[in-house]
DNA sequence: CCCCTTCGAGTACGGTGTTCGCGAGCGAGG
DNA sequence: CCTCGCTCGCGAACACCGTACTCGAAGGGG
């Protein structure tokens, strides 16, 4: 029960050795520095050297606190998850989960790199577990199997992350490529239904907040029964 | 109208110059080699040097056919999308879209790296456009706005990709970490609802095929009306 | 046939994550 | 109080990576 096996998640490994010279840094500091770098210059800018420089130390020093760069990414994910303000469940689980989704969207918009991380490297640290506990507790009155509830959590998370990624976290060049491809396909004439869709035009794009709410509620309804 | 601007997607740029010495390779060959490497050793193994080596050439040569490594990834995505066997729409759009989702799942399982790519770098090449056209045509009788249909396509794609990623495309070490974290959270006792869920146990996990079908149909129902 | 253009690819550059080795520093045991 | 054993900090090094430059070589249209 001493914990700390190399293949365990970061959060279960002891941060410091119990004996010897104590460290000058902490995982919390490393995590904060990494988040700051990612916020400023994106996820690719989160290199060991860069994070270390932000802390005024050398890259190799970080490995005293962390096993790999992926550990840093996991820590970043959970650090942001600490930002949820979980309200006690009400009688209306749809409202409760919509609130969670809205908070997730807000966090993802504040940290655009998180969308990619959530999608490609789903990590559940302590704060992620708290979030999951909260969601499951909100769903207590819903007559669905436990696995269905876990699935709902996973789907909701992925849905919001993908949504925000399309909203803000995709490089402008990528979005431009999509548009050009679409326009080209329409112009080529071999995609009549797409052409019809394009002709129908986007009707001013209703306010994105309520569109998001609507999307989440629809998916939730489908997942967990009307 | 000559096409070929540097910021256009790969598929719109001419593959070869119209004059001068013709190339010995082709984008198709490069794409096939890259897919083979990814199938064998994962997406991270798809390096310019490795793909070039598989073709018996040098890394720098690939840049005669491709602007960057990201171009190669886009080509890989669309190459797999060529594998869809799109049936003519029936009267039952739910069945039609479920068929698409099943095919997508099968393709993703055959090429596990694609899940990550789809989630993090959604690319719509010619075959992707054909797929989108097909989905939209299946949805013709559905009374929903065009943007709602596009949204449904995006959600469906992301949903299936995330699902397959959790099924097969996540490294065993990652899945293990999730389990350990979960068990640890339950054992710590501060997550009663999670503990209840764990106690309730997974009831033999019903056959994953029908679970997938069920998930897709539920989400579709929520998205596009009962 | 020749020349212009493109192709092939060796070499090089600046970067990455990670390991090694070693001196420095701290805390505990005698 | 001193010393021993440990850990920490971190410069240097390794094996790669994506990509730019720069040639000589090679093929096809005039």
TrEMBL record, chains A, B:
Pfam families: TetR_C_1, TetR_N. InterPro entries: Homeodomain-like_sf (IPR009057), HTH-type_TetR-like_transc_reg (IPR050109), HTH_TetR (IPR001647), Repressor_TetR_C (IPR004111), Tet_transcr_reg_TetR-rel_C_sf (IPR036271). Residues 24-84 form the HTH tetR-type domain. Residues 47-66 bind DNA. The keyword Transcription regulation applies. Residues 1-23 are annotated as: Disordered. The keyword Transcription applies. Keywords: DNA-binding, Transcription, Transcription regulation. SUPFAM superfamilies: Homeodomain-like, Tetracyclin repressor-like, C-terminal domain. This is TetR/AcrR family transcriptional regulator C-terminal domain-containing protein. The lineage of its organism: Bacteria, Bacillati, Actinomycetota, Actinomycetes, Kineosporiales.
